[in-house]
Design brief:
Elements: H1 4-18, E1 23-28, E2 34-36, H2 40-47, E3 54-58, E4 61-65, E5 69-74, E6 80-84, E7 94-100, E8 105-109, E9 116-121, H3 145-153, H4 159-164, H5 174-183, H6 197-216, E10 257-261, E11 264-268
Parallel strand pairs: 2-9
Antiparallel strand pairs: 1-7, 3-4, 4-5, 5-9, 6-8, 7-8, 10-11
Helix pairs in contact: 1-6, 3-6, 5-6
């Protein structure tokens, strides 16, 4: 599933391609993707004639700002956007097509069909589900070591599932939680109440550093992820633990292991990351 760095990269690359493009028509071949309004034809009709002018990101969601509405899109497991010329035939996994007056098309492709789209009147999107339940943004001024400490001290969950909770901190997923915990030298099965102030500060710095480096490198192309221009990310080449089970830790040489924490596959160095 694309996480904050991948969604941020899609936002940045797609913004350049669709800015000021006016919608002539919308084709929807998988109506279940459209969650708001609950009628795909109403969704299509509302978009006709509107122009894209800006894209924002909130957690793992893209927010397309138009003249009158905001389109909130979640890529889920394998969703991707791309610009095409109309003479290029869409494949069977293309489920939503935005046809522009310029002749170009923005297409949404999703092999698993898990992606979602919500359309809200402009200004209402942040106060409605799914965006209204999201937690603090890691890149926002509100995400401080003190805020992180408060969030993790009040939960009874282990670090890994707590950091994955989008209602606490939004944008983090499996890859970057594993990487941030390794950098902070913290075990994913530790509890917030076991950490001291210095450990919380390490974790805070590690989250910011990991995400910043990942954004700078265009995200991680672990499976099918590409940005809005069809390019792969490169952060996967620098991973310390994620996906490296059986390989030597880059810090100490111990074999990286894969375990399950909170129902999620988790990668750790048993020497660098101790419980407690």
């Amino acid at each position: 599933m694309p996480e904050l760095p991948e969604v941020e990269t899609v936002k940045s690359t797609l913004q350049q391609l669709i800015k000021n493009e006016q919608i002539k028509d919308v084709t929807i071949t998988w109506p279940k993707m459209i969650k708001q309004p609950d009628d795909a034809e109403a969704f299509r009709h509302r978009l006709l004639g509107q122009t894209f002018y800006e894209i924002q990101r909130r957690g793992k969601f893209l927010i397309f700002h138009l003249d009158e509405d905001a389109l909130v899109s979640h890529l889920r497991m394998e969703g991707r956007y791309g610009m095409f010329h109309p003479e290029e035939a869409p494949d069977k996994h293309t489920h939503v097509r935005f046809l522009f007056e310029s002749g170009k098309e923005l297409r949404y492709r999703d092999v698993r069909k898990f992606g979602t789209m919500h359309l809200f009147p402009k200004g209402e999107e942040m106060n409605r589900l799914p965006l209204s339940q999201l937690g603090v943004e890691p890149f926002s001024p509100e995400f401080t070591a003190k805020r992180l400490t408060k969030l993790l001290m009040k939960t009874s969950r282990k670090l890994k599932p707590a950091l994955l909770d989008q209602k606490l901190i939004t944008g983090l997923g499996n890859i970057y939680v594993d990487e941030a915990l390794f950098r902070a030298k913290l075990h994913p099965e530790s509890f917030g109440k076991q950490l001291n102030e210095e450990a919380f500060q390490r974790l805070h710095r590690s989250i910011i550093a990991t995400l910043t480096e990942a954004v700078d490198m265009g995200g991680s192309s672990i499976k099918s992820y590409v940005n809005g221009q069809g390019e792969m990310g490169m952060f996967q080449q620098t991973l310390f633990v994620y996906g490296r089970q059986g390989e030597a830790c880059k810090a100490c040489g111990t074999e990286i292991i894969r375990t399950v924490v909170g129902g999620r596959g988790t990668h750790i160095c048993p020497s660098c990351q101790k419980i407690g």
